[in-house]
User: Fold these one by one.
Assistant:
Number 1:
Amino acid sequence: NAGVMQNPRHLVRRRGQEARLRCSPMKGHSHVYWYRQLPEEGLKFMVYLQKENIIDESGMPKERFSAEFPKEGPSILRIQQVVRGDSAAYFCASSPNDGRDGYTFGSGTRLTVV
Amino acid sequence: GDSVTQMEGPVTLSEEAFLTINCTYTATGYPSLFWYVQYPGEGLQLLLKATKADDKGSNKGFEATYRKETTSFHLEKGSVQVSDSAVYFCALRSTGNQFYFGTGTSLTVIP
């Protein structure tokens, strides 16, 4: 039973490029969450999605960031025109419900903007 | 707003020593409390949880008790092993869909 799969594990982008981070939830999980971990900080909530719907995007920066979870395929977190401050570890998590019992996390994507 | 404060690390202990990692919280309503563990190069794994006051969560020899009067959820283990070396995160979930995480406490256990 595969866990939450994130790819790529490491991603290097030049300033101004686009970054696409992928997340396949655990089998049977239809709820997906994205968190960002900046150096020396805890994880910060970004967005919560359920199949084809954004439920809560209150933690998402208003510009350049978007997320989707299509009916078929993985959830995608997209960052357009990346800047140095976007360098962080991005974690995806999934759950079979609204997360009240906790999440299962992926191993993360480490984004470095040069 | 909701928040979690946990003791800063890093913490270094000898094998078989007693471990305490402090965690206090601020929340509206009645949050559920969690401890997650992150091993090097991996994602966070749920270690234990408690959903109401006086509940004790336990797993793999780790314990934490939900103390409403002191708004705390300290993590303890009686005898740590080298394999317990990791970063430990305290977290809460109250109203809404998101978790609030502490900044993490790095634990290194030496033989």
Number 2:
Amino acid sequence: QQQVKQSPQSLIVQKGGISIINCAYENTAFDYFPWYQQFPGKGPALLIAIRPDVSEKKEGRFTISFNKSAKQFSLHIMDSQPGDSATYFCAASSLNYGGSQGNLIFGKGTKLSVKP
Amino acid sequence: ETGVTQTPRHLVMGMTNKKSLKCEQHLGHNAMYWYKQSAKKPLELMFVYNFKEQTENNSVPSRFSPECPNSSHLFLHLHTLQPEDSALYLCASSQVVSADYGYTFGSGTRLTVV
């Protein structure tokens, strides 16, 4: 129940296309859903995050769509660029519970390659 | 530079060796974390420290021993490791122990156990 399932494992998109990465969870106590971006040789970095009180959050070319009833959320990268090539991790935590449940649970990651 | 520095970047050690990983953060954060990153697996939380006190040990084998002498420094002492312990070990920090403050990760130590 603590898992966050992420798909696809890898994704190849043409420059200018839309990249879509999906995540699903079971624990209804999760109330914070961030996405982290990791470039080769670097640690993950926070990209964008959403709380369940909204269905969508947009920051530049990056959008999170959230479906509370389906317990799913996704990352959309519009106008994908070669510089977006990285591994993307979704994550979830239960902020309201705190303690160990407040820790981030990560998905397995999606390796995105944007072809020029 | 991310503000979280990990050394060494690469480490090869035998199963009978003792080594230590070091993490230093220059962000004034009060929480620090150790994560293990293995290929095709989710990032695994190992330890959490809040104001130098360990608040989480995620069922990590005793061959991994953390140390947090102050809020800016975190160590992971390694001894009698197994080949399956080979992975990227990531240190992270946050303002407080709360995911919504965002974790700042270091670039990691790539550990190979031979």
